[in-house]
Amino acid sequence: MTMERESINGVPEVTAVSTLNVIDLSGSDTHRSVSSLKQACLDCGFFYVINHGISDELMKEVFDQSRKAFALPLSEKMKLLKNEKHRGYTPLFDERLDPVNQLNVAGDYKEGYYIGIEVPEDDPRAQEPYYGPNVWPDEDVLPGWRQCMEKYHQLALDVAKAVSRLIALALDLEIEYFNKQEILGEPIAILRLLHYEGRVSDPSKGIYGAGAHSDFGFITLLATDDVSGLQICKDKDAVPQKWEYVEPVKGAFVVNLGDMLERWSNCIFRSTLHRVIIGGQERYSIAYFVLPNHNCLVECLPTCRSEENPPKFPPIRCRTYLGQRYEETHANLSKYQTHADLSTQERPKT
Predict the structure, then answer these.
(1) What is the rounded distance in angstroms from the CA atom of residue 184 to the CA atom of residue 291?
(2) Which candidate, 211, 219, 110, places its Cα nearest to that of 159?
(3) 230-233 and 273-276 beta bridge pairing
(4) Residue 338: predicted pLDDT
(5) In what order do the strands lie in the sheet with 22-24?
(6) I need a labelling partner for 192 at 20 to 30 A (CA). Which of 63, 157, 254, 339 fits?
(7) How many CA atoms does the CB half-sphere of 195 hold within 13 Å?
(8) Across-strand partners of 283?
(9) What region holds the Fe2OG dioxygenase domain (predicted)?
(10) Can you tell me the distance from the alpha carbon of 117 to that of 304, in angstroms, rounded to the nearest whole number?
């Protein structure tokens, strides 16, 4: 399907809209669900998930609470700045998801908020990378905010585990393969609230809501408002690259595969390039990134290798791979020397 849009430089263009498979988690026909999911994973690594069990009321509350957080004065948000465990607030330009793009020198035009699985400081796990306490706003500043986000976090993990069962079956594995203790039993699961300001994207000048990238982990669950912006590129090596919009579907998650699953599957399943292009409207989304335990060794699955198709990647620990990707795409914490520095900082010229 194609549709005409006002392009980023004011010239009308015809842009494709991707048609994605829809996976119904309440469906009784498991074989059909697995077949549909497998085809999506082979084709583009993106699909919709419906009837996932998270109510419309809770989704609305999460979006409402997200808007309230991003509406705080910058000085208040900077008090919640992300820590070394990647928990907390990330300002505009903190992230540059397409680091090889020489035009995108400023960074992505979005702000975010990371929330992981809560691990108290006195828990031994808090000494490990990517585990620890979250950065929470004071209750008197954002009443009910923490409770809302913790409830959503747990339910989203349940959805991710349900999807992982279908993925396991699609890869000819035992149904609970990915839900074993050493994989998703103690995962790195990261809820990230995202706010894209209304700055119009212009790839010719390196201005993006989010630059072209593939996700780092196992799978991502994405909920969005009704503002379009997400685009995927099914063939990253094509010249020129062809981008297709993934339209919001009310009540559905957009699910996409991450790089770790592509490595696990020996590139049989795809972690697809995607980006966010903003057309002048504010946009809010809620991403839920699911990664395995930090000690998990990601190596080619036995069902995805053969003499004709040997492993394409060496084994790698989750913590090592994730650390490399964060370093490539995120600003160093030393950039924010004081809260006042950022609140008075002039935006980079583009």
Answers:
(1) 7
(2) 219
(3) antiparallel
(4) 45
(5) 22-24, 46-50, 253-257, 219-224, 283-291, 188-196, 110-115, 88-90
(6) 339
(7) 21
(8) 196
(9) 187-292
(10) 31
pLDDT of residue 206: 85
Q: How far apart are CA 25 and CA 34, in angstroms?
A: 11
Q: For 174-230, what is each residue's pLDDT tens digit?
A: 999 999 999 999 999 999 999 999 899 988 888 899 999 999 999 999 999 999 999
Q: Letter for the amino acid at 345?
A: Q
* Biggest distance spanned by C-alpha atoms of the chain: 61
Whether the ω angle into residue 248 lies within 30 degrees of 0, i.e. cis, is no
Euclidean distance between CA atoms 48 and 23, whole angstroms = 6
Half-sphere exposure of 200 (CA within 13 A, CB side): 9
Which residues 6+ apart lie within 8 Å of 39 measured at CB? 21
Question: The domain 2-343: what is its CATH number?
Answer: 2.60.120.330
pLDDT for residue 316: 96
CB 312 within 8 Å of CB 270: no
For the chain, the first-to-last Cα distance in angstroms comes to: 34
**Which residues, in sequence order, are bridge partners of residue 338?**
none
Q: For residue 50, which of 192, 246, 249 has the smallest C-alpha distance?
A: 249
Return the pLDDT at 102.
Answer: 52
Query: CA nearest 95: which of 213, 271, 1?
Result: 213
Give the angle subtended at the CA of 47 by the CAs of 41 and 49, to the nearest 5°: 125
Residue 120 structure tokens: 């108290």
Question: What's at 309, amino acid-wise?
Answer: N
pLDDT at 336: 59
**55 to 51, 65, 259: CA distances (angstroms):** 9, 16, 29
Q: Alpha-carbon distance 100 to 331, whole Å?
A: 15
Q: What is the pTM of this model?
A: 0.90
- DSSP code of residue 227: -
- Domain definitions of the chain by residue range: 2-343
The alpha carbon of residue 44 and the mean position of all alpha carbons in its chain are separated, in whole angstroms, by 16
- What is residue 13's three-state secondary structure? strand
Q: Interhelix angle for 30-43 vs 145-170, to 10°?
A: 90
